[in-house]
Write a structure and sequence with these properties.
The chain is of the alpha/beta class. It has one domain (about 5-35, about 55-80, about 115-475): Metal-dependent hydrolases (TIM Barrel, Alpha-Beta Barrel). The chain is about 40% helix and about 10% strand. It has helices spanning about 15-20, 35-45, 55-60, 85-90, 90-105, 105-115, 120-130, 150-160, 185-200, 250-260, 275-290, 310-315, 340-345, 360, 365-370, 375-400, 430-445, 455-475; strands at about 5-10, 65-70, 135, 145, 160-170, 210, 265-270, 300-305, 350-355, 405-410. Strands 1, 2, 3, 4, 5, 6 and 7 form a 7-stranded mixed beta sheet that branches. Strands 8-9-10 form a 3-stranded parallel beta sheet. The longest helix has 23 residues, at about 375-400. It starts with 6 loop residues before the first strand and ends with a helix.
């Protein structure tokens, strides 16, 4: 394989805006529709969210992001049914316009999504859309290919000019839960539905490699962590099921997904699970791996940051509210990883993908200071430093050279993130890599934690090498 630093992205959504905006290919850039005075007002209100696609396939190609997890995400309706908005004052149509401006989805698609709750049907449609998107680019210079295992991945990569996709799913609500109808089912009927849908997914020509058990809202399977920050948290209601553990139906899903007896194993991604649920899952994995050392199940957290707390318990001692996150270098909420969790993930031979959301990598004071810097070159250095601080915290937690083996990259591009202005899309990954290398070389920053790696080698491990080793071992 090439010695050039290419990027492997553990989590992005090149399909999400395309699928929900009526476009017919994954290659072209999508611009959000921003019409009229109200649309412009919403655009200003949400300016920290980029109003164009960040990881369309041309952007991935330009940024040398050669391998990436294509995250299927049937949109949770709790994200669309907003509260605390005076409908009589602004009207339903304006609410749809607001959501259209922020998400990039078409207004009629938003209206359609609000009318039904069959997430599994949504999943099948989105899978079919992505599957059919394989093939040559419109200009004929590149191609997009989904792969089933590491051997296929390596062959596709070595063939040149190929963007290699690995399927994943964000949120196990897609398996048939999280709706008013599913909550009326008996435990027996619910498990039967979940079993049927999981086995359908495992029979796909390209089944997913991983799935997030939880996402933003209650799905009857697992408690979720607080994810929405001000002002969005005042518009959507995450309270139901928040911070709960894993439900019995959730354990049924975990066993079915991880089983090799009903098809390929699908790994659980712990991002968005509550700390209570993560504790329970970590204990389960620790026990399984101790009994089955030849068939270890890795723990992956595909797109995250660190919170700087020493333990999981300390990370939930205070509620996840704005004040907790105000005066700290890191984003302190429990959706991020404590030192204790980092060590658990490291022990399982897992991966942590550091994401491109400035509001997840940094605390409010630090992020606001960087985002408002007039000197753009200095701003780039500070963002590079913030990314490195998250990586160094992982190594500090492990207290060993092997800590560098767990650090990877998971952008969450097109996941409605608060982007870093200099690196707003996948096309800017070479610039990010260059800035990260330069920052270490120029400042010898935290050199005692390099463990004799060069800055170039550290960036290579984060951006591609660790993920490739992980896939070689577990993508079978």
């Amino acid at each position: 394989m090439t010695k050039e630093i290419f990027t492997v992205d553990l989590h992005c959504h090149p399909n999400l805006k395309t699928f929900n905006s009526g476009c017919d290919n994954l290659w072209d850039k999508i611009y959000h529709r921003i019409d009229g005075k109200f649309g412009q007002t919403i655009n200003e209100f949400s300016q920290q969210v980029l109003k164009e696609s960040q990881c369309n396939l041309y952007a991935l190609s330009e940024g040398n992001v050669r391998i990436f997890n294509v995250s299927l995400y049937p949109v949770e309706r709790g994200f669309l049914h907003m509260r605390n908005i005076p409908k009589l004052l602004i009207g339903k149509n304006r609410i749809n316009i607001m959501q259209e401006v922020i998400t990039g989805f078409k207004a009629d698609r938003i209206t359609e999504l609000k009318k039904h709750y069959n997430y599994f049907e949504d999943l099948l449609e989105e899978y079919e859309f992505v599957y059919k998107a394989q093939g040559k680019s419109p200009d004929g210079k590149s191609r997009f290919l989904l792969v089933n295992n590491y051997e296929e991945l390596e062959n596709a990569f070595d063939s040149g000019n190929t963007l290699v996709g690995i399927l994943s799913i964000e949120g196990a609500h897609v398996l048939g839960t999280g709706s008013a109808r599913s909550e009326t089912l008996s435990a027996k009927d619910l498990n039967e539905l979940l079993t049927k849908n999981i086995r359908t997914v495992k029979k796909w020509k390209i089944p997913p490699f991983s799935i997030n058990l939880a996402h933003h809202f209650w799905n009857q399977l697992s408690g979720h962590a607080t994810s929405f920050k001000p002002p969005i948290n005042s518009l959507v209601n995450q309270n139901k099921g928040k911070d709960k553990g894993i439900m019995e139906a959730g354990w049924h899903v975990i066993r079915e997904l991880l089983s090799r007896e009903n098809g390929k194993r699908i790994i659980i991604d712990v991002k968005h699970m509550s700390v209570t649920a993560r504790k329970e899952y970590y204990a389960f994995i620790r026990n399984y791996n101790s009994v089955n050392p030849a068939d270890m199940i890795p723990i992956i957290c595909s797109h995250a940051g660190v919170n700087g707390f020493s333990t999981m318990d300390s990370s939930i001692r205070d509620n996840d509210v704005a004040a907790k996150n105000r005066n700290h270098r890191f984003h302190r909420w429990s959706i991020n990883l404590s030192n204790e969790e980092i060590r658990i993930i490291h022990q399982s031979k897992g991966l942590i993908g550091l994401m491109m959301d400035r509001g997840i990598l940094g605390g409010k004071l630090a992020v606001d200071r960087i985002a408002t810097m007039p000197d753009k070159e200095k701003q780039r250095k500070e963002y590079a430093k913030l990314f490195w601080d998250n990586a160094f915290q992982i190594v500090k937690a492990v207290e060993d050279r092997s800590g560098w083996d767990v650090v990877a990259f998971g952008s969450d591009f097109d996941g409605t993130i608060t982007h870093m202005d200099p690196y707003e899309s996948a096309s800017k990954m070479p610039l990010l890599q260059s800035d990260m290398i330069a920052y270490l070389e120029d400042n010898r920053y935290q050199e005692d934690l390099w463990f004799d790696y060069t800055p170039h080698q550290l960036v290579q491990k984060i951006m591609s090498k660790n993920a490739m080793q992980f896939y070689k071992r577990f993508f079978v």
